[in-house]
Design goal:
The chain is α/β, with parallel strands linked by helices. The chain is built from 8 helices and 5 strands, in the order E-H-E-H-E-H-H-E-H-E-H-H-H. The protein has one domain: Aldolase class I (TIM Barrel), CATH 3.20.20.70. Helix 2 runs parallel beside helix 4 and helix 4 runs antiparallel to helix 7. The longest helix is centred in the C-terminal third of the chain and has 27 residues.
């Protein structure tokens, strides 16, 4: 249905599924995106699916979002980065900003960045921190209800994205100097995310039975 998106994890198997679904006019949510490489492969697959659909169909094509997970980076690395003199609470945002720039550079109106995992755990930041910091044209934020309610108390904020690529590169240089291997971080978060998805899917199937 036009108001439904099929969630597909950004894995090697998932990229083929994204292409196939979009080629058949089905909306896709490319999810569990942590790294720019996952975003790049998702974009390529979804755009190829759109090209196939548009070659034989007229009218509005399927739409897609790339769900970039945000706060998990900061929960994992804030303490370590702060000890190394790197501003905490920024890694997830700057990583998401890099992927947002990638999506927007394609100039494909059917595809948007979606910011996921934007709730704040504990009292480290204001409840609506990740909404305010990730406000951007042509994007989606799937914040928890309490986070949205906190934002609506003071909703007038200017968009913070895009962030200049040079500033993004400078920030990641500081993360590297702090001894953080981002590929290891991406791999760990993806592994944890896939495990959580498998558990949730198993529970869903159990209830359906």
């Amino acid at each position: 249905m036009p108001n439904v998106m099929i969630k597909v994890p950004a894995t090697d198997a998932g990229y083929g599924a994204m292409k196939r679904l979009m080629s058949e006019g089905v909306n896709v949510n490319a999810t569990l995106i942590f790294s720019p490489m996952q975003a790049l492969k998702s974009l390529d697959a979804m755009e190829e699916g759109l090209r196939i659909w548009r070659a034989t169909n007229e009218g509005v094509s399927a739409k897609g979002v790339l769900s970039v997970f945000v706060s998990r980076f900061d929960r994992m690395l804030d303490d370590r980065l702060e000890r190394a003199g790197v501003q905490p609470g920024r890694l997830g945002i700057v990583n998401a900003a890099r992927i947002y720039n990638m999506v927007e550079s394609r100039r494909e109106s059917a595809l948007r960045a979606l910011f996921a995992s934007t709730g704040v755990k504990g009292n480290a930041y204001e409840a609506d921190y990740y909404i305010k910091e990730l406000m951007a044209p042509h994007s989606v934020n799937t914040a928890p209800l309490a986070t949205i309610e906190a934002f609506l108390e003071h909703p007038l904020h200017a968009p913070k994205l895009p962030i200049d690529e040079e500033a993004i590169a400078t920030f990641f240089d500081s993360v590297e100097r702090a001894g953080v291997d981002m590929q290891n971080v991406y791999d760990k978060l993806m592994s944890e995310g896939l495990e959580a998805f498998k558990e949730a899917f198993a529970r869903l199937l159990l209830h359906l039975e």
